[in-house]
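ESCALATION

Customer reports they have been waiting on this structure for their group meeting. Please prioritize. Original submission:
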Amino acid sequence: MAVLLRALCLLPFLPHVSFGQFLPFFGGWFGGNNGGSAVSYSDSSNWELVSKDSGVSAMHLILMPKNNKAIMFDATVFGPSKIQFPDGENCRLVPNSKTNETDCWAHAVEYDIGTAEVRPLKLWTNPWCSSGGLAADGTLVGTGGWKEGGKSVRLLSGCATCDWKDIPDALAGYRWYATQQILPDGSFFVIGGRRTFTYEFLSPQGTGDLKSFTFDFLRETTDLAENNLYPFVHLSPDGNLFIFANNRSILFNPTTQKILREFPVLPGGSRNYPASGMSALLPLNLQDGNAEAEVLVCGGAKPEAFGLAENKTFLPALEDCGRIDIKNPNSDWKIETMPSRRVMGDMLILPTGDVLMINGAEKGTSAWEAADVPNLTPVLYSPKKPVNERFKELEPSSIPRMYHSTSAVLPDGKILVAGSNTNPDYKFKGVKYPTEMRVEKFSPPYLDPSLQGRKPDILLEYSQAALTYGESFNVKVKFSTDWEVDRTDMKVTMYAPPFTTHGYSMNQRLLILETSSVGRTFLGFYDIVATAPPSGKVAPPGYYLLYVVHRGVPSTGMWVQIQ
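Update from on-call: job pushed to the front of the queue and completed.
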Protein backbone atom coordinates (compact mmCIF):
# COMPACT_ATOMS: atom_id res chain seq x y z
CA MET A 1 0.00 0.00 0.00
CA ALA A 2 2.86 2.39 0.78
CA VAL A 3 4.23 1.88 -2.74
CA LEU A 4 0.83 2.65 -4.21
CA LEU A 5 0.48 5.84 -2.17
CA ARG A 6 3.95 7.07 -3.15
CA ALA A 7 3.13 6.45 -6.81
CA LEU A 8 -0.16 8.31 -6.56
CA CYS A 9 1.64 11.28 -5.01
CA LEU A 10 3.66 11.61 -8.20
CA LEU A 11 0.62 12.16 -10.40
CA PRO A 12 0.45 15.98 -10.02
CA PHE A 13 4.06 16.23 -11.22
CA LEU A 14 3.49 14.18 -14.38
CA PRO A 15 0.86 16.11 -16.34
CA HIS A 16 2.37 15.09 -19.68
CA VAL A 17 2.25 11.38 -18.90
CA SER A 18 -0.88 9.42 -19.80
CA PHE A 19 -2.45 6.99 -17.38
CA GLY A 20 -1.34 4.14 -19.63
CA GLN A 21 2.26 5.33 -19.39
CA PHE A 22 2.01 5.59 -15.61
CA LEU A 23 0.86 2.00 -15.21
CA PRO A 24 4.36 0.42 -15.17
CA PHE A 25 4.99 2.12 -11.79
CA PHE A 26 2.42 -0.28 -10.39
CA GLY A 27 4.38 -3.37 -11.35
CA GLY A 28 2.34 -6.44 -12.19
CA TRP A 29 -0.94 -5.15 -10.75
CA PHE A 30 -2.08 -3.80 -14.10
CA GLY A 31 -0.15 -6.12 -16.44
CA GLY A 32 3.46 -6.08 -17.59
CA ASN A 33 5.16 -5.26 -20.88
CA ASN A 34 6.05 -8.79 -21.83
CA GLY A 35 2.69 -10.49 -21.55
CA GLY A 36 0.16 -11.22 -24.24
CA SER A 37 0.58 -12.28 -27.83
CA ALA A 38 0.60 -10.65 -31.24
CA VAL A 39 -2.75 -9.25 -32.28
CA SER A 40 -4.07 -10.03 -35.76
CA TYR A 41 -4.95 -7.26 -38.18
CA SER A 42 -8.49 -6.04 -38.23
CA ASP A 43 -10.28 -6.11 -41.57
CA SER A 44 -10.04 -2.35 -41.91
CA SER A 45 -8.30 -0.96 -44.97
CA ASN A 46 -9.27 2.11 -46.95
CA TRP A 47 -8.61 4.35 -49.92
CA GLU A 48 -8.30 8.11 -50.18
CA LEU A 49 -8.06 10.32 -53.24
CA VAL A 50 -5.08 12.63 -52.69
CA SER A 51 -4.74 14.31 -56.09
CA LYS A 52 -6.97 14.77 -59.10
CA ASP A 53 -4.05 15.41 -61.44
CA SER A 54 -0.54 14.00 -61.30
CA GLY A 55 0.50 16.06 -64.32
CA VAL A 56 1.84 13.06 -66.21
CA SER A 57 0.73 9.46 -66.54
CA ALA A 58 2.74 7.50 -63.98
CA MET A 59 4.12 4.69 -66.15
CA HIS A 60 7.24 4.60 -63.96
CA LEU A 61 7.37 5.37 -60.22
CA ILE A 62 10.00 5.44 -57.49
CA LEU A 63 10.25 7.01 -54.03
CA MET A 64 13.40 9.07 -53.59
CA PRO A 65 15.31 8.87 -50.29
CA LYS A 66 15.70 11.70 -47.81
CA ASN A 67 13.31 14.16 -49.46
CA ASN A 68 10.29 11.81 -49.62
CA LYS A 69 9.43 12.84 -53.17
CA ALA A 70 8.05 10.38 -55.70
CA ILE A 71 9.32 10.52 -59.27
CA MET A 72 6.67 9.74 -61.89
CA PHE A 73 7.36 9.68 -65.61
CA ASP A 74 5.89 8.59 -68.90
CA ALA A 75 7.18 8.34 -72.47
CA THR A 76 7.95 11.52 -74.39
CA VAL A 77 6.04 10.54 -77.55
CA PHE A 78 2.45 10.21 -76.34
CA GLY A 79 1.53 13.79 -77.09
CA PRO A 80 0.85 16.59 -74.60
CA SER A 81 0.67 15.67 -70.93
CA LYS A 82 -1.28 17.84 -68.50
CA ILE A 83 1.59 19.96 -67.26
CA GLN A 84 3.72 22.45 -69.17
CA PHE A 85 6.99 24.08 -68.29
CA PRO A 86 6.31 27.58 -66.98
CA ASP A 87 6.53 30.46 -69.47
CA GLY A 88 7.68 28.16 -72.25
CA GLU A 89 11.03 27.63 -70.54
CA ASN A 90 12.93 24.36 -70.58
CA CYS A 91 11.36 23.17 -73.83
CA ARG A 92 13.25 20.38 -75.54
CA LEU A 93 14.02 19.95 -79.19
CA VAL A 94 12.16 16.91 -80.50
CA PRO A 95 14.80 14.38 -81.61
CA ASN A 96 15.13 13.85 -85.36
CA SER A 97 12.62 16.60 -86.12
CA LYS A 98 13.10 18.03 -89.61
CA THR A 99 11.32 21.26 -88.62
CA ASN A 100 13.13 21.91 -85.33
CA GLU A 101 9.93 21.15 -83.45
CA THR A 102 10.00 21.85 -79.71
CA ASP A 103 8.13 20.10 -76.92
CA CYS A 104 7.17 22.31 -73.97
CA TRP A 105 5.18 19.66 -72.13
CA ALA A 106 6.69 17.87 -69.16
CA HIS A 107 6.74 14.07 -69.24
CA ALA A 108 8.15 13.60 -65.75
CA VAL A 109 7.31 15.15 -62.39
CA GLU A 110 8.54 15.22 -58.85
CA TYR A 111 5.48 14.51 -56.70
CA ASP A 112 5.36 15.63 -53.07
CA ILE A 113 3.80 12.73 -51.16
CA GLY A 114 2.68 15.05 -48.38
CA THR A 115 1.18 17.97 -50.28
CA ALA A 116 0.52 16.40 -53.72
CA GLU A 117 2.33 19.32 -55.36
CA VAL A 118 4.22 18.50 -58.54
CA ARG A 119 7.34 19.97 -60.05
CA PRO A 120 7.86 19.38 -63.79
CA LEU A 121 11.10 17.66 -64.81
CA LYS A 122 12.76 17.72 -68.20
CA LEU A 123 13.46 14.46 -69.99
CA TRP A 124 15.94 14.71 -72.84
CA THR A 125 15.51 11.26 -74.38
CA ASN A 126 12.56 8.89 -74.44
CA PRO A 127 12.33 6.63 -71.34
CA TRP A 128 9.33 4.65 -72.62
CA CYS A 129 9.35 1.23 -70.93
CA SER A 130 12.72 1.83 -69.30
CA SER A 131 14.31 0.43 -66.15
CA GLY A 132 15.96 1.94 -63.09
CA GLY A 133 17.10 1.85 -59.49
CA LEU A 134 18.76 3.86 -56.74
CA ALA A 135 22.53 4.15 -56.52
CA ALA A 136 24.27 3.92 -53.14
CA ASP A 137 24.28 7.72 -52.80
CA GLY A 138 20.54 7.97 -53.49
CA THR A 139 20.81 9.03 -57.13
CA LEU A 140 18.17 7.57 -59.42
CA VAL A 141 19.90 5.73 -62.27
CA GLY A 142 17.55 5.05 -65.18
CA THR A 143 18.45 2.95 -68.20
CA GLY A 144 17.08 2.46 -71.68
CA GLY A 145 13.84 3.36 -73.35
CA TRP A 146 12.75 3.74 -76.96
CA LYS A 147 14.40 5.12 -80.11
CA GLU A 148 16.96 7.76 -79.07
CA GLY A 149 16.44 6.71 -75.44
CA GLY A 150 17.17 3.02 -75.96
CA LYS A 151 20.84 3.34 -75.05
CA SER A 152 20.58 6.27 -72.65
CA VAL A 153 21.44 6.44 -68.97
CA ARG A 154 19.53 9.09 -66.99
CA LEU A 155 20.57 10.41 -63.59
CA LEU A 156 18.46 12.32 -61.09
CA SER A 157 19.58 13.32 -57.60
CA GLY A 158 17.30 14.48 -54.84
CA CYS A 159 18.05 18.18 -54.45
CA ALA A 160 15.24 20.72 -54.51
CA THR A 161 16.09 22.10 -57.95
CA CYS A 162 17.74 19.10 -59.60
CA ASP A 163 16.64 17.82 -62.99
CA TRP A 164 17.48 14.90 -65.22
CA LYS A 165 20.99 14.49 -66.57
CA ASP A 166 20.95 12.40 -69.73
CA ILE A 167 23.90 10.42 -71.05
CA PRO A 168 22.98 9.23 -74.56
CA ASP A 169 24.60 6.13 -76.07
CA ALA A 170 25.91 5.07 -72.66
CA LEU A 171 24.65 1.49 -72.98
CA ALA A 172 26.02 -1.29 -75.17
CA GLY A 173 22.61 -2.82 -75.80
CA TYR A 174 19.28 -1.35 -76.83
CA ARG A 175 17.35 -1.65 -73.55
CA TRP A 176 13.61 -1.39 -74.19
CA TYR A 177 11.64 -3.44 -71.57
CA ALA A 178 14.88 -4.40 -69.80
CA THR A 179 15.55 -5.05 -66.11
CA GLN A 180 18.11 -3.34 -63.88
CA GLN A 181 19.36 -4.91 -60.63
CA ILE A 182 21.81 -3.48 -58.11
CA LEU A 183 24.72 -5.78 -57.15
CA PRO A 184 26.54 -6.25 -53.81
CA ASP A 185 29.20 -3.64 -54.66
CA GLY A 186 26.64 -1.04 -55.76
CA SER A 187 27.15 -1.59 -59.48
CA PHE A 188 24.24 -2.50 -61.75
CA PHE A 189 23.35 -5.53 -63.85
CA VAL A 190 21.16 -4.65 -66.85
CA ILE A 191 19.56 -7.48 -68.80
CA GLY A 192 17.30 -7.94 -71.79
CA GLY A 193 15.13 -5.69 -73.88
CA ARG A 194 13.05 -6.35 -76.97
CA ARG A 195 15.00 -8.83 -79.11
CA THR A 196 18.09 -7.97 -77.08
CA PHE A 197 19.42 -11.25 -75.75
CA THR A 198 22.33 -9.79 -73.79
CA TYR A 199 23.30 -8.28 -70.45
CA GLU A 200 25.85 -5.69 -69.35
CA PHE A 201 27.24 -4.04 -66.23
CA LEU A 202 27.25 -0.41 -65.11
CA SER A 203 29.37 1.19 -62.43
CA PRO A 204 27.73 2.52 -59.23
CA GLN A 205 27.70 5.91 -60.96
CA GLY A 206 25.82 4.54 -63.97
CA THR A 207 28.72 4.43 -66.40
CA GLY A 208 29.75 1.40 -68.43
CA ASP A 209 32.38 0.17 -70.85
CA LEU A 210 29.91 -0.38 -73.73
CA LYS A 211 30.44 -4.12 -73.55
CA SER A 212 27.56 -6.60 -73.56
CA PHE A 213 27.44 -10.36 -73.17
CA THR A 214 25.27 -12.82 -75.08
CA PHE A 215 22.71 -14.61 -72.92
CA ASP A 216 21.12 -17.56 -74.68
CA PHE A 217 18.63 -18.07 -71.87
CA LEU A 218 16.71 -15.01 -73.09
CA ARG A 219 16.61 -16.28 -76.66
CA GLU A 220 15.39 -19.67 -75.42
CA THR A 221 12.56 -18.20 -73.37
CA THR A 222 11.08 -15.86 -75.99
CA ASP A 223 8.00 -16.90 -77.96
CA LEU A 224 5.70 -15.37 -80.58
CA ALA A 225 4.54 -12.73 -78.10
CA GLU A 226 7.95 -12.60 -76.41
CA ASN A 227 6.57 -13.06 -72.85
CA ASN A 228 10.07 -12.76 -71.37
CA LEU A 229 10.50 -8.99 -71.29
CA TYR A 230 11.18 -7.24 -68.00
CA PRO A 231 12.64 -10.51 -66.65
CA PHE A 232 12.35 -10.89 -62.88
CA VAL A 233 15.82 -10.57 -61.30
CA HIS A 234 16.40 -10.98 -57.57
CA LEU A 235 19.72 -10.80 -55.71
CA SER A 236 20.12 -13.87 -53.51
CA PRO A 237 21.89 -13.37 -50.14
CA ASP A 238 24.72 -15.55 -51.48
CA GLY A 239 25.45 -12.93 -54.17
CA ASN A 240 23.97 -14.89 -57.06
CA LEU A 241 21.10 -13.70 -59.23
CA PHE A 242 17.80 -15.49 -59.61
CA ILE A 243 16.57 -14.74 -63.15
CA PHE A 244 13.06 -15.64 -64.27
CA ALA A 245 11.85 -15.29 -67.88
CA ASN A 246 8.52 -16.51 -69.27
CA ASN A 247 8.14 -19.72 -67.22
CA ARG A 248 11.77 -20.72 -66.66
CA SER A 249 14.32 -19.63 -64.08
CA ILE A 250 18.02 -19.97 -63.34
CA LEU A 251 20.60 -19.07 -60.72
CA PHE A 252 23.35 -16.98 -62.27
CA ASN A 253 26.73 -15.97 -60.84
CA PRO A 254 27.38 -12.38 -61.98
CA THR A 255 31.07 -12.61 -61.06
CA THR A 256 31.95 -15.73 -63.05
CA GLN A 257 29.07 -15.09 -65.49
CA LYS A 258 28.07 -18.74 -65.28
CA ILE A 259 24.65 -20.34 -64.88
CA LEU A 260 24.86 -22.41 -61.70
CA ARG A 261 21.61 -24.30 -62.13
CA GLU A 262 18.18 -24.19 -63.70
CA PHE A 263 15.06 -24.57 -61.61
CA PRO A 264 11.99 -26.59 -62.61
CA VAL A 265 9.58 -24.91 -65.02
CA LEU A 266 6.77 -22.99 -63.31
CA PRO A 267 3.60 -24.48 -64.84
CA GLY A 268 0.42 -22.64 -65.75
CA GLY A 269 1.44 -20.02 -68.31
CA SER A 270 3.72 -17.07 -68.97
CA ARG A 271 4.71 -14.60 -66.27
CA ASN A 272 6.71 -11.79 -67.91
CA TYR A 273 5.73 -8.94 -70.20
CA PRO A 274 3.36 -8.91 -71.99
CA ALA A 275 1.91 -11.73 -69.87
CA SER A 276 2.93 -9.53 -66.92
CA GLY A 277 2.73 -11.48 -63.70
CA MET A 278 4.21 -10.27 -60.43
CA SER A 279 7.29 -11.31 -58.47
CA ALA A 280 9.15 -10.49 -55.27
CA LEU A 281 11.95 -11.86 -53.15
CA LEU A 282 10.24 -12.65 -49.86
CA PRO A 283 11.63 -10.95 -46.72
CA LEU A 284 15.07 -12.09 -45.62
CA ASN A 285 14.98 -12.93 -41.92
CA LEU A 286 18.43 -12.32 -40.45
CA GLN A 287 17.40 -13.22 -36.92
CA ASP A 288 18.56 -16.82 -37.23
CA GLY A 289 21.85 -16.05 -39.00
CA ASN A 290 21.06 -18.07 -42.11
CA ALA A 291 18.31 -16.32 -44.01
CA GLU A 292 16.14 -18.37 -46.30
CA ALA A 293 15.69 -16.89 -49.77
CA GLU A 294 12.32 -17.58 -51.36
CA VAL A 295 10.90 -16.02 -54.50
CA LEU A 296 7.18 -15.58 -55.09
CA VAL A 297 5.73 -15.36 -58.62
CA CYS A 298 1.99 -14.77 -59.04
CA GLY A 299 -0.46 -14.21 -61.86
CA GLY A 300 0.26 -13.64 -65.51
CA ALA A 301 -1.41 -14.94 -68.66
CA LYS A 302 -1.49 -17.83 -71.07
CA PRO A 303 1.20 -17.59 -73.79
CA GLU A 304 -1.44 -17.00 -76.47
CA ALA A 305 -3.23 -14.22 -74.55
CA PHE A 306 -1.42 -11.38 -76.29
CA GLY A 307 -2.23 -12.59 -79.80
CA LEU A 308 -5.89 -13.14 -78.98
CA ALA A 309 -6.17 -9.75 -77.31
CA GLU A 310 -5.33 -8.09 -80.60
CA ASN A 311 -8.74 -9.38 -81.79
CA LYS A 312 -10.42 -8.30 -78.53
CA THR A 313 -10.59 -11.82 -77.15
CA PHE A 314 -9.45 -11.50 -73.56
CA LEU A 315 -8.42 -14.74 -71.90
CA PRO A 316 -8.78 -15.07 -68.12
CA ALA A 317 -5.57 -14.12 -66.33
CA LEU A 318 -3.72 -16.69 -64.24
CA GLU A 319 -4.79 -17.12 -60.62
CA ASP A 320 -1.91 -19.18 -59.24
CA CYS A 321 1.31 -18.39 -57.41
CA GLY A 322 4.57 -20.28 -57.35
CA ARG A 323 6.97 -20.09 -54.42
CA ILE A 324 10.50 -21.52 -54.46
CA ASP A 325 13.59 -21.65 -52.23
CA ILE A 326 16.35 -20.35 -54.51
CA LYS A 327 19.21 -21.44 -52.20
CA ASN A 328 18.14 -25.07 -52.24
CA PRO A 329 19.51 -26.90 -55.34
CA ASN A 330 16.72 -29.50 -55.08
CA SER A 331 13.83 -27.11 -54.59
CA ASP A 332 10.64 -27.11 -56.63
CA TRP A 333 7.73 -24.72 -57.00
CA LYS A 334 5.01 -24.82 -54.37
CA ILE A 335 1.74 -23.77 -55.96
CA GLU A 336 -0.93 -21.67 -54.25
CA THR A 337 -4.15 -20.10 -55.53
CA MET A 338 -4.99 -16.41 -55.24
CA PRO A 339 -8.52 -15.23 -54.38
CA SER A 340 -8.83 -13.70 -57.88
CA ARG A 341 -7.11 -13.71 -61.25
CA ARG A 342 -4.56 -10.97 -61.90
CA VAL A 343 -2.41 -9.72 -64.75
CA MET A 344 -0.46 -6.41 -64.75
CA GLY A 345 -0.66 -6.21 -60.96
CA ASP A 346 1.99 -4.82 -58.62
CA MET A 347 3.56 -6.84 -55.81
CA LEU A 348 4.87 -4.78 -52.92
CA ILE A 349 6.49 -5.89 -49.67
CA LEU A 350 5.00 -4.13 -46.67
CA PRO A 351 7.06 -3.01 -43.64
CA THR A 352 5.59 -5.92 -41.66
CA GLY A 353 6.90 -8.56 -44.08
CA ASP A 354 3.52 -9.25 -45.63
CA VAL A 355 3.09 -8.92 -49.40
CA LEU A 356 0.51 -6.69 -51.08
CA MET A 357 -0.90 -7.47 -54.53
CA ILE A 358 -2.61 -4.46 -56.06
CA ASN A 359 -3.78 -3.07 -59.44
CA GLY A 360 -4.17 -5.04 -62.67
CA ALA A 361 -6.92 -6.84 -64.57
CA GLU A 362 -8.67 -10.19 -64.49
CA LYS A 363 -8.65 -10.72 -68.26
CA GLY A 364 -6.23 -10.07 -71.10
CA THR A 365 -2.62 -9.04 -71.12
CA SER A 366 -0.36 -6.02 -71.18
CA ALA A 367 -0.52 -3.70 -74.21
CA TRP A 368 -2.84 -0.94 -75.34
CA GLU A 369 -6.52 -1.91 -75.13
CA ALA A 370 -5.50 -5.54 -74.47
CA ALA A 371 -7.26 -6.20 -71.16
CA ASP A 372 -10.63 -5.98 -69.48
CA VAL A 373 -12.29 -6.45 -66.07
CA PRO A 374 -10.04 -4.39 -63.79
CA ASN A 375 -9.05 -6.13 -60.58
CA LEU A 376 -10.03 -3.51 -58.02
CA THR A 377 -9.42 -5.62 -54.92
CA PRO A 378 -6.00 -5.66 -53.23
CA VAL A 379 -4.86 -8.92 -51.69
CA LEU A 380 -2.67 -9.36 -48.61
CA TYR A 381 -0.36 -12.38 -48.65
CA SER A 382 1.17 -13.44 -45.32
CA PRO A 383 4.10 -15.76 -46.12
CA LYS A 384 4.50 -17.08 -42.57
CA LYS A 385 0.91 -18.19 -42.10
CA PRO A 386 -0.29 -21.75 -42.84
CA VAL A 387 -0.72 -22.50 -46.53
CA ASN A 388 -4.51 -22.19 -46.60
CA GLU A 389 -4.58 -18.98 -44.56
CA ARG A 390 -2.13 -16.73 -46.43
CA PHE A 391 -4.43 -14.73 -48.71
CA LYS A 392 -6.81 -12.04 -47.56
CA GLU A 393 -8.84 -9.68 -49.76
CA LEU A 394 -8.92 -6.03 -48.71
CA GLU A 395 -11.07 -3.00 -49.43
CA PRO A 396 -11.49 -2.48 -53.22
CA SER A 397 -10.78 0.74 -55.07
CA SER A 398 -13.28 2.37 -57.40
CA ILE A 399 -10.62 3.42 -59.93
CA PRO A 400 -9.39 0.92 -62.55
CA ARG A 401 -5.60 0.62 -62.49
CA MET A 402 -4.55 -1.49 -65.45
CA TYR A 403 -1.82 -1.08 -68.08
CA HIS A 404 0.89 1.41 -67.07
CA SER A 405 -0.31 1.74 -63.47
CA THR A 406 2.15 1.87 -60.59
CA SER A 407 2.36 1.89 -56.80
CA ALA A 408 4.89 2.49 -54.03
CA VAL A 409 5.26 1.91 -50.29
CA LEU A 410 5.52 5.20 -48.40
CA PRO A 411 7.33 5.96 -45.12
CA ASP A 412 4.05 6.11 -43.20
CA GLY A 413 3.10 2.63 -44.42
CA LYS A 414 0.49 3.81 -46.89
CA ILE A 415 0.63 2.83 -50.57
CA LEU A 416 0.82 5.49 -53.25
CA VAL A 417 -1.19 4.37 -56.29
CA ALA A 418 -1.04 6.18 -59.63
CA GLY A 419 -1.18 5.81 -63.38
CA SER A 420 -3.12 3.54 -65.76
CA ASN A 421 -3.19 4.29 -69.45
CA THR A 422 -4.43 1.61 -71.80
CA ASN A 423 -4.31 4.04 -74.71
CA PRO A 424 -1.45 5.01 -77.06
CA ASP A 425 -1.74 8.64 -75.95
CA TYR A 426 -3.58 10.75 -73.37
CA LYS A 427 -7.30 10.06 -73.86
CA PHE A 428 -9.94 11.21 -71.42
CA LYS A 429 -13.12 10.70 -73.45
CA GLY A 430 -14.56 8.20 -75.88
CA VAL A 431 -12.68 5.16 -74.53
CA LYS A 432 -13.68 2.48 -72.03
CA TYR A 433 -10.65 3.09 -69.81
CA PRO A 434 -9.55 6.74 -69.99
CA THR A 435 -6.04 7.84 -69.12
CA GLU A 436 -5.94 8.02 -65.34
CA MET A 437 -4.40 11.10 -63.72
CA ARG A 438 -5.83 10.70 -60.22
CA VAL A 439 -3.55 9.64 -57.38
CA GLU A 440 -4.72 7.57 -54.42
CA LYS A 441 -3.31 6.37 -51.14
CA PHE A 442 -4.26 2.95 -49.85
CA SER A 443 -4.08 2.20 -46.12
CA PRO A 444 -3.39 -1.46 -45.29
CA PRO A 445 -5.09 -2.98 -42.22
CA TYR A 446 -2.20 -2.14 -39.89
CA LEU A 447 -3.21 1.53 -40.18
CA ASP A 448 -6.61 0.86 -38.60
CA PRO A 449 -7.06 3.60 -35.96
CA SER A 450 -7.96 0.96 -33.37
CA LEU A 451 -4.40 -0.41 -33.61
CA GLN A 452 -2.52 2.87 -33.29
CA GLY A 453 -1.92 2.43 -29.56
CA ARG A 454 0.56 -0.26 -30.58
CA LYS A 455 2.39 1.92 -33.09
CA PRO A 456 6.00 2.87 -32.22
CA ASP A 457 7.34 6.32 -33.07
CA ILE A 458 11.03 6.41 -33.96
CA LEU A 459 12.91 9.25 -32.26
CA LEU A 460 14.98 10.36 -35.24
CA GLU A 461 17.37 12.57 -33.31
CA TYR A 462 18.34 9.70 -31.01
CA SER A 463 18.49 6.91 -33.62
CA GLN A 464 21.40 5.97 -35.84
CA ALA A 465 20.92 6.66 -39.56
CA ALA A 466 24.40 5.77 -40.86
CA LEU A 467 24.88 2.00 -40.71
CA THR A 468 27.99 -0.14 -41.16
CA TYR A 469 27.82 -3.74 -42.31
CA GLY A 470 27.71 -6.21 -39.44
CA GLU A 471 27.80 -3.61 -36.66
CA SER A 472 25.18 -2.99 -34.01
CA PHE A 473 23.21 0.26 -33.88
CA ASN A 474 20.53 1.87 -31.73
CA VAL A 475 16.98 2.81 -32.51
CA LYS A 476 14.95 4.66 -29.92
CA VAL A 477 11.16 4.59 -30.00
CA LYS A 478 8.28 5.86 -27.93
CA PHE A 479 4.69 4.72 -27.53
CA SER A 480 1.64 6.75 -26.67
CA THR A 481 1.00 4.24 -23.91
CA ASP A 482 2.88 1.41 -22.26
CA TRP A 483 -0.34 -0.48 -21.65
CA GLU A 484 -0.11 -2.47 -24.90
CA VAL A 485 3.66 -2.78 -25.33
CA ASP A 486 5.04 -6.30 -25.75
CA ARG A 487 8.83 -6.29 -26.01
CA THR A 488 8.80 -9.89 -27.24
CA ASP A 489 6.83 -8.89 -30.33
CA MET A 490 8.98 -6.09 -31.71
CA LYS A 491 11.17 -6.28 -34.81
CA VAL A 492 13.25 -3.96 -36.98
CA THR A 493 12.90 -4.12 -40.76
CA MET A 494 14.76 -2.40 -43.59
CA TYR A 495 13.08 -1.77 -46.94
CA ALA A 496 14.78 -0.90 -50.23
CA PRO A 497 12.35 1.30 -52.23
CA PRO A 498 11.92 -0.17 -55.72
CA PHE A 499 11.64 1.21 -59.23
CA THR A 500 8.19 0.09 -60.37
CA THR A 501 6.91 -0.18 -63.93
CA HIS A 502 4.82 -2.64 -65.91
CA GLY A 503 3.94 -4.70 -62.84
CA TYR A 504 7.50 -5.30 -61.67
CA SER A 505 9.24 -3.59 -58.74
CA MET A 506 12.97 -3.77 -59.46
CA ASN A 507 15.46 -3.92 -56.55
CA GLN A 508 12.72 -4.32 -53.94
CA ARG A 509 13.99 -5.92 -50.74
CA LEU A 510 12.92 -6.23 -47.12
CA LEU A 511 15.23 -7.41 -44.34
CA ILE A 512 14.20 -8.46 -40.83
CA LEU A 513 17.18 -7.52 -38.70
CA GLU A 514 18.67 -9.33 -35.76
CA THR A 515 17.88 -7.54 -32.50
CA SER A 516 19.93 -8.19 -29.36
CA SER A 517 17.88 -6.20 -26.86
CA VAL A 518 14.75 -4.13 -26.37
CA GLY A 519 14.98 -2.14 -23.16
CA ARG A 520 12.62 0.35 -21.56
CA THR A 521 14.41 3.55 -20.62
CA PHE A 522 11.42 5.49 -19.30
CA LEU A 523 7.65 5.48 -19.42
CA GLY A 524 6.76 4.59 -23.01
CA PHE A 525 10.36 4.96 -24.24
CA TYR A 526 12.41 2.02 -25.51
CA ASP A 527 15.94 1.50 -26.76
CA ILE A 528 16.40 -1.20 -29.41
CA VAL A 529 19.83 -2.58 -30.27
CA ALA A 530 19.87 -4.16 -33.73
CA THR A 531 22.58 -5.50 -36.00
CA ALA A 532 23.08 -4.15 -39.51
CA PRO A 533 23.06 -6.66 -42.41
CA PRO A 534 26.38 -8.49 -42.75
CA SER A 535 27.30 -7.59 -46.34
CA GLY A 536 26.28 -6.11 -49.66
CA LYS A 537 25.14 -9.54 -50.78
CA VAL A 538 22.38 -9.36 -48.21
CA ALA A 539 21.79 -5.61 -48.46
CA PRO A 540 23.40 -3.74 -51.37
CA PRO A 541 24.78 -0.34 -50.34
CA GLY A 542 22.36 2.53 -50.34
CA TYR A 543 19.31 4.01 -48.68
CA TYR A 544 16.62 2.01 -46.94
CA LEU A 545 13.49 2.80 -44.99
CA LEU A 546 13.91 1.42 -41.47
CA TYR A 547 10.76 0.47 -39.59
CA VAL A 548 10.09 -0.77 -36.08
CA VAL A 549 7.16 -3.18 -36.15
CA HIS A 550 5.33 -3.86 -32.90
CA ARG A 551 2.55 -6.41 -32.71
CA GLY A 552 2.06 -6.15 -36.48
CA VAL A 553 1.92 -2.34 -36.56
CA PRO A 554 4.85 -0.49 -38.16
CA SER A 555 6.29 2.85 -37.16
CA THR A 556 6.76 5.56 -39.72
CA GLY A 557 9.93 4.68 -41.57
CA MET A 558 13.27 6.40 -41.01
CA TRP A 559 15.77 6.76 -43.86
CA VAL A 560 19.06 5.00 -43.16
CA GLN A 561 22.10 4.50 -45.36
CA ILE A 562 24.33 1.44 -45.26
CA GLN A 563 27.76 1.14 -46.80
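Sent to customer with the following note: Helices lie at 2-9, 19-22, 216-221, 305-309.
Escalation resolved.
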